[in-house]
Amino acid sequence: MKVLRHEEFADGCEAACNGPYANRWSKTMMGYGPESNHFVVELTYNYGIKSYELGNDFRGITIRSSEVLKRAKAKKWPILPGNVLEAPGGYKFHIIDAPQPTDRDPVEKVTLSCSNLLKSINYWNGLLELTIFDRTDKTVLLGFKEREAKLELENIEGPVQRAAAYGRIAFACPFEEQPKIAKKIEHHKQTILKPLISLDTPGKATVRVIILADPDGHEICFVDEEGFTELSQVDPEADKLLNRYIEKDRS
């Protein structure tokens, strides 16, 4: 993946973007292409925090790319059974051994655990209106568009433990749609973790977000598309900026 942008913050995020920490932190956006048309990973780094307790909520990210496996072998990075790579911290990447596509995002899906598949389907499909693309007895594949990365929910037939390393799934939507989402969630008596709030990024655009939680506590962020389009422009100096702060930190 490429470093698309890197941002530093002096204090914790009002919307808990960096988790329950009030300290200095940074975020690095990484993906196979611009945030406007690719799934992007947001890596948050909390200065001074050396480790996180993992739960069973995050199952992994699936990427179609035999090239990834070739690089792993060349760099002697362990390839686990089923072509699974484990990143630092324990996060899993499931690699499909097929040529990396050039006409679409190589990221196929993000898989999260759920404790009740029907209840989760009613939330994600019924309330948030994601389309069901596939379904089995234990999983459902959801998304907004055919040629985009999907969200997969997998029934683990037990409680979902989010522990202290959890993140959130984010979607961009039109500014005018955010209050409608809030009204709908309130009407159905579902959880709003953070009502509509504007967040500033030093030297960049301000965006408005609303943070929800699904029946298992998975956090969902809807950010306004207009502000996010301006904020998420690829920074050609992002890689240099990231490396400069890594050198300063040395942890």
Mind explaining what this structure looks like?
- Belongs to the glyoxalase I family.
- This is VOC domain-containing protein.
- Residues 106-225 form the VOC domain.
- There is one protein chain.
- The chain has a 7-stranded mixed β-sheet with strand order 5-6-4-7-10-9-8, with helices on one face. A 4-stranded mixed β-sheet has the order 11-14-13-12.
- The protein starts with a strand and ends with a helix.
- The protein contains 5 helices and 14 strands.
- Strand 13 (207-213) and strand 14 (219-224) form a beta hairpin.
- The chain has a domain at 56-161: 2,3-Dihydroxybiphenyl 1,2-Dioxygenase, domain 1, CATH 3.10.180.
- It has helices spanning 66-74, 117-127, 178-187, 225-231, 238-249, and strands at residues 2-9, 25-31, 40-46, 58-64, 84-86, 92-96, 107-114, 131-135, 139-143, 150-155, 168-173, 191-199, 207-213, 219-224.
- The chain is globular.
Give the structural class: alpha+beta
Strand order within the widest sheet?
5-6-4-7-10-9-8
Query: What top-tier CATH class of the domain at 56-161 fits best?
Result: Alpha Beta
The helix/strand series, from N terminus to C terminus, equals EEEEHEEEHEEEEHEEEHH
Question: Percent of residues in beta strands?
Answer: 35-45%
Return the average pLDDT rounded to an integer: 96
Q: Could you give a short account of the major beta sheet?
A: 7 strands, mixed
Radius of gyration: 18 Å
Runs in which pLDDT lies below 50 for 5 or more consecutive residues are none
Query: Total helix count?
Result: 5
Looking at the overall shape, the CATH architecture of the domain at 56-161 is Roll
Please give the share of residues in helix: 10-25%
What is the CATH superfamily of the domain at 56-161? Answer: 2,3-Dihydroxybiphenyl 1,2-Dioxygenase, domain 1
Amino-to-carboxy terminus distance: 23 Å
CATH topology of the domain at 56-161: 2,3-Dihydroxybiphenyl 1,2-Dioxygenase, domain 1
Looking at the structure, what is the overall shape?
Answer: globular
Q: What's the count of strands?
A: 14
Family: Belongs to the glyoxalase I family.
InterPro entries: GLOD4, GLOD4_C, Glyas_Bleomycin-R_OHBP_Dase, VOC_core
Protein name: VOC domain-containing protein
Keywords: Repeat
